[in-house]
Amino acid sequence: MANNKENKGTRAFNETIKAYLEERAENDALFAVKFANPSKSVEECVTYILNSVQKSGCNGFEDDEIFGMATHYYDEEEIEVGKPINCQVVVNHTVELTEEEKEQARQDAINKLRDEEMAKMRRPKTTEKKVQDVQPSLFDF
């Protein structure tokens, strides 16, 4: 199970990489042998990708670029993975919420609306009298 401190995007990223690698292994017998290497893991693969991204200095990548890094990790027998990086990954894929998370989001929205309405009711009503410019009329002279 993913670490509770991971955000949804990071979990989705890990799952996306894993799904890509598994599908590639199903469709490519040569890659399947490399993917089955017991000295390699999806977790290390993700660490390798994150370190590669960090070294590049870029903030955005095409899917194919990231998948290429994942494949490269498995293709190379000796590869420097780097240290695990504590970061948040943003994916441009839809992240599905569980029913529990949907209910929590609904409750949060209801609570926020309630708090906003309560704040409005607590504000003192201002009874500003409109100050009109007093202009003398011709009859005042």
User: Could you say which structural class the secondary elements and strand pairing correspond to?
Assistant: mainly alpha
Question: Residue-averaged pLDDT, rounded?
Answer: 83
Distance separating the two termini: 89 Å
What amount of the residues lies in strands?
Answer: under 5%
Number of strands: 0
> What is the CA-based Rg, rounded?
29 Å
Shape: elongated
The topology string of helices and strands comes to HHHHH
Alpha plus pi helix count: 5
Major sheet details:
none
State the helicity in percent bands.
55-70%
Low-confidence stretches: 1-5
Structure description:
- This protein is mostly helical and 141 residues long.
- It has a domain at 8-75.
- The chain has 5 helices and no strands.
- It has helices spanning 8-27, 29-35, 42-56, 63-75, 99-122.
- Helix 1 packs across helix 2 and helix 3 packs across helix 4.
- The protein is elongated.
- Residues 1-5 have low confidence and may be disordered.
